[in-house]
Amino acid sequence: MRFIGITGGVGAGKTEILKYIGQHYKCEIYLADEIGHKVKEPGTEGYRALVALLGEEILAADGQIDKPAMAAKIFADPALLEQVNAIIHPAVKKYLADRLEEAKTRGDVELFFVEAALLIESGYEKIVDEMWYVYAREDVRRRRLSKSRGYTQEKIERIITSQLSEEEFRKHSNFVIDNSDSLEASYRQIRQKLEAYTWRE
Predict the structure, then answer these.
(1) What's the rounded Cα separation, in Å, for the pair 191 and 173?
(2) How many CB atoms lie within 10 A of CB 153?
(3) Could you write out the DSSP letters of every residue in 38-74?
(4) Which residues pair with 176 in a beta bridge?
(5) Are 133 and 4 in contact (CB under 8 A)?
(6) Residues 84, 78: contact at Cβ < 8 Å?
(7) What is the rounded distance in angstroms from the CA atom of residue 74 to the CA atom of residue 54?
(8) Burial (Cβ within 10 Å: 0-12, 13-18, ≥19) of residue 193
(9) Residue 86 belongs to what H/E stretch?
């Protein structure tokens, strides 16, 4: 079984790539953002640590962490962000490690994926077998974000400039999927890559 990280800039099309992989291969796919929410749910270690750090004023009436209240608390004291990340990031990695171990034990999964825009910055290179980069030309990404999400050019510019450059993504990745053109062209790249694997041996 291969543990693969999938990353890429906003608008590159990671969601469509993962949808195809999920439909055609024996795999499990996890989105780091979704796990980030899970590790903050009541009853988890992450929840208890965040409440201890930020106080019960970040809780909603139902006991869940209120995201706007938590964000406001961090905004008021930027030093808290590093402490919050020091709680959430390890919790996400532990959650993944547990799911990975379960998948290995069952033996019914050939590919185990985790996706996030910040995989490289979060040090996932050290724990995955491979890092895949979903690339798309900047003009294509801008067009997609404008059309599908209704983003203004100013917002697109702000997000793109806040993320790693294409050169940085490529430097830290083992495999690049060029998703600038048709999805079928992208799928073909994935099939060629996975057909070369020898994990079944």
Answers:
(1) 18
(2) 10
(3) HTTSTTSHHHHHHHHHH-GGGB-TTSSB-HHHHHHHH
(4) 133
(5) no
(6) no
(7) 8
(8) middle
(9) helix 79-106
Place of tokens 């998948």: 103
Q: How confident is the model at residue 201 (pLDDT cuts 50, 70, 90)?
A: very low
Strand, coil or helix: 115: strand
pLDDT tens readout for residues 94-105: 999 999 999 999
- Is 133 exposed, middle or buried (CB count within 10 Å of its CB: 0-12, 13-18, 19+)? buried
Separation between Cα atoms, residue 27 and residue 108, nearest integer Å: 8
Nearest to 40 by CA among 60, 20, 15, 11: 60
Tens of pLDDT along 44-83?
Answer: 999 999 999 999 999 999 999 999 999 999 998 989 999 9
